[in-house]
Amino acid sequence: MTSHPVLLDISRLLSRAGSAVPTGIDRVELEYALYLSRCFPARVTFVAYHPLGRIGILPRRLTDCFLRMLARAWTKGRRPWRGASLMAGVLLQAAAIGAVGNNVQRRLYLLLSHHHLMQRDAIAGFLGRANAGLAVMVHDLIPIEYPEYARPSEPDRHRRRMDTVGQLADAVIVPSQDVAKSLRHYLAPGGRCPPIGVVHHGCHVSPATMVPVSGLAPDAPYFVVLGTIEPRKNHLLLLNIWRHMAAGRDRTRLPHLVVIGRRGWENENIIDMLERCPTLQGIVHEHATLSDVVVADLVRGARALLFPSFAEGFGLPLLEALSMGIPCLCSDLPVFREIAGDLPGYLDPLDGPAWQRKILELAEQDARGAGEAPPTFADWPTQAAAGLAMIDGAGRADAGSWDARAGGAVRLMDMEAGTVC
């Protein structure tokens, strides 16, 4: 069965070359790029979008070097060497002049981030020049469904992105059934829905090491919340719980809270509590840039991972904590039940008293089952292969027959066995 050549866009990675800590979407784009570069180097050509409105090919050796450099830096939790940013600039300029000629064999232009998805005309022009179909990954529709959690301009930008998907995409990868449902609902009024494949993200867990984290781990039972500090993640619920607990109990017997994540947007109230609430000082600890290894060790030492988000497209921290055998308390969201089943404890993200009760219960005793093997989830190579198999299948199918099915075909990748159901 012939696989289509892939034109993989790494524009987002180029834009993030100076960042010390990757976002979830950064990780997804990097994992797919590394998988193709290592396992199918002859199949992939890397491309990127230049701000002048042109998408062009990138020099291969320099791109491979850039990807390796980024992976090493992010694994260690360090800001990439200055050469990475210089390399990203050279690659971006190469995109402005790197023409992609028409090819006899049909190709697939794979865009794994939302980076320039609103640039419909630029993408359409590139597809025509490259004799390529468009395959995209839609991570979520949160800016459209929950505009109160986004920057003011983001809902309109995201509508434009989804309109590009509806008009141009030949195949769409989404990380969960919940996102697939939202995307179909959004595209339905337009009358065209491309094939949508549900492929869960891969789970990567750093192996247990002897990395010293004594300077970061509190000398007390503690809980971890992991993710960008923004209103959607519901940090405010946890901070109010800890303030309430600290006001009525002996502070020396309180569990601590470790907050791991960079500061995002629209989070003034959260930051005020972290910086200015005297009750929280010494029992709530904030860390913005930590290596994957140190984060994993902090999570392994925690009583539980707390995940009280109001909305998510997936939830990588949940799977990674569960795979370490760490208890998790999370919001009762359909996407969490889809990816984690009955493994976590589910709570209403607005029910502060219920969260506090469960936190205090877990603080009193380590709830990890003695001798129980933690669950396993599919790794990144397995899921990257699944995503590529999905878009290959869509590319081979007749577009009319795919669109004739109810809402587009859905292929669900099983997390554990890695088989298509």
UniProtKB/TrEMBL annotation:
It comes from the Bacteria. Residues 214-343 form the Glycosyl transferase family domain. SUPFAM superfamilies: UDP-Glycosyltransferase/glycogen phosphorylase (SSF53756). GO terms for molecular function: glycosyltransferase activity. Keywords: Transferase. Gene3D superfamilies: Glycogen Phosphorylase B. GO terms for biological process: lipopolysaccharide biosynthetic process. It holds the Pfam family Glycos_transf_1. PANTHER family: GLYCOSYLTRANSFERASE WBBK-RELATED (PTHR46401). This is Glycosyltransferase family 4 protein. The lineage of its organism: Bacteria, Pseudomonadati, Pseudomonadota, Alphaproteobacteria, Acetobacterales.
